[in-house]
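Internal QA ticket QA-208
Title: Verify multi-chain structure generation after dependency bump
Assignee: T.L.

Test input:
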Amino acid sequence: MINQKERIKTWLKGNRARGARLLQILVRENSTRGNESGAQAVLIEKCRQLGLTMDIWEIGGEELKKHEAYCCDRTSFDGNPNLVAILKGTGSGKSLILNGHIDVVPVGDEKSWKEDPFSGHIECGKLYGRGATDMKGGTVALLMAMESIIATETKLKGDVIFQSVIEEESGGAGTLAAVLRGYKADGAIIPEPTNMKVFPKQQGSMWFRISVKGKAAHGGTRYEGVNAIEKSLAVIQRLQKLEKDRNERITDPFYDNIPIPIPINIGKMNSGEWPSSVPDTAIIEGRMGVAPEETISAAQLEMENCLAELNQHDPWFQDHPLSIEWFGGRWQPGSLNEEHPLVTELSASYKEIKGQHPVIEASPWGTDGGILSNFGHTPAVIFGPGITEVAHDANEHIHLEDMFLASEIIALTILNWCGVQEEI
Amino acid sequence: MINQKERIKTWLKGNRARGARLLQILVRENSTRGNESGAQAVLIEKCRQLGLTMDIWEIGGEELKKHEAYCCDRTSFDGNPNLVAILKGTGSGKSLILNGHIDVVPVGDEKSWKEDPFSGHIECGKLYGRGATDMKGGTVALLMAMESIIATETKLKGDVIFQSVIEEESGGAGTLAAVLRGYKADGAIIPEPTNMKVFPKQQGSMWFRISVKGKAAHGGTRYEGVNAIEKSLAVIQRLQKLEKDRNERITDPFYDNIPIPIPINIGKMNSGEWPSSVPDTAIIEGRMGVAPEETISAAQLEMENCLAELNQHDPWFQDHPLSIEWFGGRWQPGSLNEEHPLVTELSASYKEIKGQHPVIEASPWGTDGGILSNFGHTPAVIFGPGITEVAHDANEHIHLEDMFLASEIIALTILNWCGVQEEI
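Actual output:
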């Protein structure tokens, strides 16, 4: 086993350029929602070369769409499949799911990018592009770990089930589809961008859309109307207070270093169509965080009650009530005990590679981990090389060194978790 | 003259259905910006039937576009002409411009309309539809007044110059083009929707666009970004304070009954493209009122100074300054002395028809009157039958009774102003 570990580490150190090149190719494939096929094709070819047993399918169907955790406004998944690729063990070992999502968020304001958002260019040890950090770098770390095991002819006892799923950024339908297809395991690692921290707990979240009504009028007699933008200010301020109240209740020491453990993000606001008219409607969209031990419905109820309170106390809202819609993305919260063997094994591997204990925290954002643990009976931990701060931002990038170290840590964790079949 | 007046009043009372029908046809022609030709065609046919001398032309050209008062982002005026139609006097009388704009603002949220926004349907003495009040009803009052003079074979001494212009809602390029084409007179009446009040002074206004920068981030770690919507709150609150400060300075008794004499209207706000991302840009658009005796540039400077103050004191704005653009519409302010003969003649006619003095105030919104008076050397007064409160609103409508009375008042004013050539 010790020999095997050393051989794997040596292989990974010798094949870093191979990993960087794979990430570059992946980033160059724009895989925003509805365009995932190109990047999936790159991974399918890679898994084929590794000799893995593949399952490639377009998600959908009644079972998925009627599931309580299904949350998706996409009308078609045609041509953009999920991928599962299995490295079969010899038996009797614990199995492990390695899950990464292939979809990336939109690029935002292109002018804020120094290079093309899908350039994949490398500079000073960083690889740039939308998805580099969230989370194609994590996915490459998984595949490099698997390749190191295959290349060194290490025989695992337990199965390793690699998953490249769509739809994580929009609510997790891809991972849910994999769960419903029967994929489960004794544990799962999801290499979302954690800054190399270990997150046994994951914050859930969901999207909301609040409609604020006003009354149109000529801007020159604006006092004859009611400005939906001005009325929105009160709504936003109430949401800010709700966020404050909810976060003051969080006492979990895992969140000690997180300024806002369960944020309420105002992500979009659109109102008005003419500068000199009083706008009669404003639409506010955002994302509400859910604590690991909280339920999605409890958090939703709390926000709904806030709006009901505004509707009750503001004379305008009494007659023109705010309405809220829970649309688009919804991510289940997840919670794993810090003493769970998956956490301790991963931490031990981390210490072996980095020489120190990892930071163990609760994730400040939702992941597919909640679906795996709550509906797939698969305990999940989040750990990855990407940089939290640049996920979804312009000039997104990853430190390649972290990706290489993550692949070593994950490879050792696979060995310890799945077990190695010694040669007889 | 007394006989003539009575014949005209009698003719107008007997032809109310004719006026209502003309307004209905006009409202049914959607004349939002770029679509004015259909409604203009209705008026051209009407003026042809009245035997007026017409001038129909597509505005444009270097002189117009280089004029200091030109303010327009429209790229083409092709196919949507201005119309001037003249009832020539016998000479030696004072001339009068009767100016109405044919363009209407967009319909807004169609769901807020009980009927089709361009239905022109009549119910309980009200005619409904976008433009009914602002200001096709006023235009019909002008034409009915002229028709009553023609039908009664009244010979005027001075010229009556009817103008149906485009672009009033977007900055007055239509009226400016008429001024540059040489049309001026000893006075002008613009029947904008004043609730039958007389406005010798007109508030100017112009549009602004403020760009607010933020910093994108994942919504779950929103503290790593800067939310452009939240930063916009401070900007909107500062504009609210600016509005308050500016209006506290207004001591003109004309504005005594106006809650906000020179409003700053926040008309549009757009920010963000993804609910779970922190938005990195917000665009705020609106309209700033300018006092009758103020200049546009002085008002602009005051708002620019406010933003500069925010840029100086807010640490984020210090490095990411707010920027402002004065785009689209700009309407010159105008000011006529209350004792000007045009105001006293109009007031006398009002008293003759309505039996009481009109309310004389300053207009709470900009009109083309500023262009006529400041650049066309034509003193202008604003008086019309439309309802201020429903201009630009859903279910816009006009009281037909007011339109009929306005046509009588305007007809008498024409007689008194232009003078009647008695038969020899």
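Spot checks passed. Chain B has twelve helices and 17 strands.
Status: verified.
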